[in-house]
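Re: Re: token formats

Sure, here are both.
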Amino acid sequence: MTKPLFAIYGAYGHTGRLVASELLARGAELLLAGRDAEALRTLAAELDAGQRVSTRTAAVDDAPALREVMTDADVLIQCAGPFAVTGAPVAAAAAEAGCHYIDHALEPHHVKGVFDTAQATAERTGAVMIPALSFYGGLGDLLAGAVSEGIAGIDRIVVAYAVNGWRLTTGAKNTATHLFAETERLTFSDGALRAGYVEPRNAVFPFPPPLGPRSMIAPFPSSEVVTVPRHVPARAIDLMLSTSAFEAAEAFDSEHIGAVERAETDFTIAVQVMGEGGSVAGQLTGHDLWRAGALASVEGAVRIAEGRGPTKAGVLAPGEAFLAEPFLRELERQGAFTLTLSGKG
């Protein structure tokens, strides 16, 4: 039986390198893709995996080259942000080619766009497509699913990210700049997804010890407003990000630091679910948010390639595609974070 071929688009960025290294550690064969041929060749040499790694040049505005990558690959992991620029053409090419697809998007408009434009094509071609299976968005979505399991009459879900030591890559910096300048925000309230201007506010979220209450940016423009309602029947979803994520002067001046320094992040993702019987909570705590996101996308891609993924094709939220708590427990076993659920240890 032929081994599945995993393509990584934007492979020479920080996240793409982490994804490539993790897949190679699992014995995978890789197709590294992106617009910079020299950067691809350099990365392939650095990975030093011989015939297990090949490269292909494909710019986001080169539809034939993208289709060629998707036709050859079994699963694609899209790591090239900002997804407001790169997302639509890569996702469309995957859907049309029947190539399974996972991306690292944070941007809610891109995630909504994949659901809106690729669903019918992916169902027809047999592609499983999971946008936002990464640190921001994906882990919040899965944690919301795990905490909400068995809870009736959910009125409100709060997903709060506390991040310290975040050092943005070029793609992350461009994404953050775009998101916080955006005036057409997506929010979820009264059981419906809404678009329009939302006045940012300061809030305080009561993280469990040892963090305690933290000053937060609200609403945080992340993709859970699009994905969580697909598998959790909540009336409202609130997203928050700690102001500490951007307090360090070097957060936006760190595009060229090394991988070791970039890994020095501490994070907690906390979810509160308010239902008919009161509230329940859960949290993920760990170090190196970049690695946590890479492990999430690789675990999803490997499961799909091995036939352990969703039983239906189409565009799916992370918590639709996989059972939330078992998926998170596997990432915990891999050292991505520590998972704590109320009443579950």
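Second one below.
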Amino acid sequence: MNFPSIQLTVILVFMTNFVSCLDSNFLDSHWKYPIEVQGIPPKHFTVLEKNLEPNACQTCHNKQFQNWKESLHSKSISKGFLWQKEILSSKEYQSCFQCHSPLPETKSELSTEFETKEILNSKHQNFPNGISNPSILCASCHIRNQIRFGPPPRTNAKEKSYINNLPHNGYIAKEEFESSAFCKSCHESKPNGKRLNGKKLMEVYTEWENSPFAKQGIQCQNCHMPEREHSWKGIHDKTFVQKSLLPTWKITEKNGTFHIQAELKSIGVGHRFPTYIIPKVYLRFYAILNHKSKPVLLEESVIGRIVNTNLTEEYLDTRIKPQMSHQVSIGYDPKEKKVLKFLWEIEVDPDEQYVRQFEEQRLENDKKLNPESKKMLQESLLEKKNSRYLLFTLNWQVPVLLPQ
């Protein structure tokens, strides 16, 4: 199909009330790797329309831009990613680009192997001022071969007075943008990828597919992109996680021994909690004997998928399935000491696996890394250590026994 035909097709889509239907081949072609270069923009495009930098998209899509700018998508090429170039083979490093920097134009910022004449020419045409951030950009999901794609509009196109004068030829509406299948390409390991205990390293889509949420038609976007918000909040966001879990506990006393029954229920997570191998969640129970002494640790358990740093062995998988619970039962005899209250703390460590890996790699590669890579590693490690946060704190005051 030549370009004038494509242009006409796009305009016709908008003039027929933004008709959109599921296309069984769309996702396969949209996420076919490697993604092709964008090529030369249409001649009639303005300077702004030709620029694929996110801040150019901001001109008309400011809300989405502001959300994206604060999201992890905009930070997919971070110091924690870049320092690893020295310890990974070229093939291993470039394999990460598929999700962390999908466009060939952004890949050329990361590896000289992508500095081909075709890619560099496309980068010059579509990023005239250079690429300020080679992460996941607006174009990574929304543009292929100079054609814009997105979800169906929420308003009737016939109400739009500018229907025949849409910027960048309008866009092709695809319902797949509001389907969990759209996220699968980067949030599910490939079928032939590494498996531990019969499970792929990343099975977010499969976990959702087998959940009650999938059966109810609740998609990834319903939670991670509410109202089409481009923030993709997840395990790093305390408020987001708090809304998805319900901690409850009951404490009884019999013959001087306290019995604690606690439950952490997943009420709004459409996959295992936490998903993937990186985050860990810690449940700690304490007895407070008096205001001066340190709390007595009664129990500490971990929720997560614990894997070694080489990703060759799984030790434990205690993650919570959707709408299921993690339960803890504790008996505590204070040995005639008076207990003032009990404390339950739930802490989230979103980057636990990275911290272990980075610390080990820092020791193993101390002499191999150049000063710049060492600095990026140190800064990334500190950032990941500081990502921990206290999710819930529950207190239970021991009742005062009145004299008989």
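The CA atoms of residues 170 and 344 lie 53 Å apart. The longest helix spans residues 371-385.
- S.
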